[in-house]
């Protein structure tokens, strides 16, 4: 059984490492800037035709989340274990009174907290900008987007940690994570439409392919709940 104290120590270490990771901070900054920019553009367009609403902005942000969040989570997870193995610090950690399950769980929790904080910051600034612009209406849609974005980030983080645990080097883990991200992105809307035309796929086949892609499942789940 995992020792919560050991898990908390590893999680705190991963959280500190993520805060010092320039790539992670860059991804978080890009997400915040783009989400605020898209929210601002959405509010301008909505003001021309009617009331500024959270639901409209949530629909605009869906594609941004589907692009940035998986890339950020995959890269952070892929760099975690493989980089420590390459530096030799993984062997040092495992030499401590710490089993592999505690190490993996601690890494997952620490990185999950870092991702959640980055997403909360981006969405929080966007929501504040919308409130200043006088947004009203379907706040639940925006909350649904935030919650499902967190779930998507956790799923992609788990995939990234799996890649990191299997990859011999950090560079290999990074390359595989980017390849997976491109595969997931290509198998969303445009990829499915192109595949249906080329391979003459029917509706059941398209649905099965869509449900095999976490990004497409995320988009379907969010859009089905928007007003």
Tell me what the structure shows.
This protein has helices at residues 4-20, 22-49, 54-87, 89-94, 100-132, 139-166, 170-186, 189-199, 203-211, 214-223. By secondary structure, it is mostly helical. Helix 3 (54-87) runs antiparallel to helix 7, helix 3 runs antiparallel to helix 10 and helix 6 crosses helix 7 (170-186). The protein is globular and about 55 Å long.
Q: Which structural traits does this protein have?
A:
single chain, 227 residues, mainly alpha
In short:
With 227 residues, this protein is mostly helical. It has helices at 4-20, 22-49, 54-87, 89-94, 100-132, 139-166, 170-186, 189-199, 203-211, 214-223.
Order of helices and strands: HHHHHHHHHH
Globally, the shape reads globular
What's the Cα radius of gyration? 19 Å
Oligomeric organization of the protein chains: single chain
Q: What is the helical fraction, as a range of percent?
A: over 70%
**How large a portion of the residues is in β-strands, by DSSP E?**
under 5%
Low-pLDDT windows of residues: none
Note the gap between the termini. 45 Å
What profile does the largest beta sheet have? none
Number of helices: 10
Q: Return the average pLDDT rounded to an integer.
A: 84
Question: What class, by secondary structure content?
Answer: mainly alpha
Number of strands: 0
